[in-house]
Amino acid sequence: MSIPTQMSLAGFIVSISDLQRTTGGGDRIRLRVGVEQWRHEADDTFTKLDPTYHDVVAYDTAASVIGQRFRPGDFFVASGYIHEYEIDQRGGSLIKEEFVARKIGHNANQTTYVVQRRPPHAPASAQRAVQHQPALGM
C-alpha cells in the first residue's frame, strides 16, 4: 500500500484577513504568504534570492486555527492543494491560483515553542474498572 501524501507549502505569513463566514455558514480566512527561495551554486554554496509571494485560503477548522494561533511573521508548514480560478479583467480574463490549506502548523525548523499535551488517557478497560469500584467504608 502506498503512503498517502498531500501537496505542502512552507513559508512565512505576510498578512492575514479577518475570519469571515462563507455563504454556507463555515469559516474562511485569507493569507498572503512569502516563500523563501535559494539558488544552489556550482561551489556547493547557496545564495538567498528574493522571496515569492502567494495567496492562501483556509476553511472551517484550519481557518479557525489560523485566526487564533497565527500572526504576520510566523513561519508555517501547510498541507492542501492548489486551486486555479479565473477572474474577469478589462481586456479579457486572468487565471490565478491560491493554495488551499487543509492543515497548518508552525514550522518547527523556524519556530521556538512549547508543546502543551493533553493528559494521557487510561485504556477503556481501566476506566470501566475505576467507575465500578465500590466506595470505601460501605
Automatic annotation (TrEMBL):
Superkingdom assignment: Bacteria
Keywords: DNA-binding
Alphabetized GO MF terms: single-stranded DNA binding
Region annotation Disordered: where it falls in the sequence: 118-138
Stated name of the protein: Single-stranded DNA-binding protein
Phylogenetic lineage: Bacteria, Bacillati, Actinomycetota, Actinomycetes, Propionibacteriales
